[in-house]
TrEMBL record, chain A:
<keyword id="KW-0650">Protein phosphatase inhibitor</keyword>
<feature type="region of interest" description="Disordered">
    <location>
        <begin position="1"/>
        <end position="53"/>
    </location>
</feature>
<feature type="compositionally biased region" description="Basic and acidic residues">
    <location>
        <begin position="16"/>
        <end position="37"/>
    </location>
</feature>
<protein>
    <recommendedName>
        <fullName>Alpha-endosulfine</fullName>
    </recommendedName>
</protein>
<dbReference type="GO" id="GO:0004864">
    <property type="term" value="F:protein phosphatase inhibitor activity"/>
</dbReference>
<dbReference type="GO" id="GO:0051301">
    <property type="term" value="P:cell division"/>
</dbReference>
<keyword id="KW-0131">Cell cycle</keyword>
<keyword id="KW-0597">Phosphoprotein</keyword>
<dbReference type="InterPro" id="IPR006760">
    <property type="entry name" value="Endosulphine"/>
</dbReference>
From TrEMBL, chain B:
<dbReference type="InterPro" id="IPR015943">
    <property type="entry name" value="WD40/YVTN_repeat-like_dom_sf"/>
</dbReference>
<dbReference type="InterPro" id="IPR000009">
    <property type="entry name" value="PP2A_PR55"/>
</dbReference>
<dbReference type="GO" id="GO:0000159">
    <property type="term" value="C:protein phosphatase type 2A complex"/>
</dbReference>
<dbReference type="GO" id="GO:0051983">
    <property type="term" value="P:regulation of chromosome segregation"/>
</dbReference>
<keyword id="KW-0677">Repeat</keyword>
<dbReference type="InterPro" id="IPR018067">
    <property type="entry name" value="PP2A_PR55_CS"/>
</dbReference>
<keyword id="KW-0853">WD repeat</keyword>
<dbReference type="GO" id="GO:0019888">
    <property type="term" value="F:protein phosphatase regulator activity"/>
</dbReference>
<dbReference type="GO" id="GO:0140767">
    <property type="term" value="F:enzyme-substrate adaptor activity"/>
</dbReference>
Amino acid sequence: MSQKQEEENPAEETGEEKQDTQEKEGMLPERAEEAKLKAKYPSLGQKPGGSDFLMKRLQKGQKYFDSGDYNMAKAKMKNKQLPSAGPDKNLVTGDHIPTPQDLPQRKSSLVTSKLAGGQVE
Amino acid sequence: MLVCQGPGIGSVTHKSTWALGARTKKWLLADVISTVEFSHSGDLLATGDKGGRVVIFQREQENKSRPHSRGEYNVYSTFQSHEPEFDYLKSLEIEEKINKIRWLPQQGAARFLLSTNDKTIKLWKISERDKRAEGYNLKDEDGRLRDPLRITALRVPILKPMDLMVEASPRRIFANAHTYHINSISVNSDHETYLSADDLRINLWHLEITDRSFNIVDIKPANMEELTEVITAAEFHPHQCNVLVYSSSKGTIRLCDMRSSALCDRHSKFFEEPEDPSSRSFFSEIISSVSDVKFSHSGRYMMTRDYLSVKVWDLNMESRPVETHQVHEYLRSKLCSLYENDCIFDKFECCWNGSDSAIMTGSYNNFFRMFDRTTWRDVTLEASRENSKPRASLKPRRVCAGGKRKKDEVSVDSLDFSKKILHTAWHPVENIIAVAATNNLYIFQDKAN
């Protein structure tokens, strides 16, 4: 549904009332969703669109590997395994030190796009 | 001629469907299409993908002997535009994914386009070669050098026709100007300059000069802890070469005039829709983030896409949009799971038709939406092989938000959120649209007569 807002002036009051109820109805699902999220993640910050989220966005692609750290950690651990990266290899948390396995492999050489294969139907 | 016509939206007519892409379900991540753009005349259609490749399609000329192929788009050229890189100094992986392609207006026989990944913009020249010189004096036809002592006569090489060869060559490489990730490029109406925008800065380039660019917008705070918003999209005005707009993650749009000052940190106009504070939630700012901004062809309006809606703004009115079209309002009750699976951060694009009478944007489940601004009708269509046969009309789709699901309706819970249509393009003149559904490209045409 689309709303045209420029013709609101003559019927402004009823328009606003309508918008109020629409917004209240629209608000309920959003607030319910927010409650669900807070229940699952109680530590979720007060400022959702704030620095943390944006900083993560700006740092996309950052991968750190320090061979010194890696070898020191290996020596410390001796026979134990280093903590692995887990499913999300982009997040470096806790004691995890990026290992060569975590870094992206150099991608394979050029393969022609399948779109250029001319398979038209 | 409007795309949405006839009694009710039910009779959207589309003549031909071409689905281009892999036949099998198995496809590589590299095949995901990341940008689609028609050239200024519409005869060429360029796509970029996650693997850094560009594929250009060309519209076939009308041919009486093959009436069915009228107006079909076939592969014209393909090349590797960008490669994956690793910035060792910053420990940063640079994806080869093509974020945007923008065509330059045609000036000669050759065609030019700009393609960009996160860090580097490249100017590509695409030229045709259909003649070959034969009869050289110093070498044979197979290329071997002739013995100069044996050359007794001179001949003039002649040009002979050959099979058409389309060559793409990089003419300019605009690098090292962006610390953050490039999200937009836009060619200026002066045909000499263009802008590139990343999360925090916008640079102005001259197409001929690669070692310098001017920074015209910089929103990086002195203390990064104070960062509250980023630039999400930017575009030059289609006619006024001094005007540009950029949108932010907070749902605002700023219009800048390069004549007023060299550094456009202070906007000339500020567009923001007032928000009802009582309806604010955790998700409010995230879903208000503008993922795309596009000027109308007329230059009088601009359109913004946020997570749930498309808004049309009159450039003369900053206080609120003149139109708001709901794309998939039923997702408001799914925001929690959409936040968890990161879909709430999906960046949908939007586009105008040639006459600015209709707008189009994508959604989930391979659905895309079209809104007719004059008749105030809208329609949901699906781009998928299973549901559309070539040369048949597209059937409108309906999503059931709740309650009893009618026959032919799709319930919100059965929507496939991995099938997102982020990129769509509309032919600059005719009713032909290109829709990218993950790794497949669909081209739909309006039935003539």
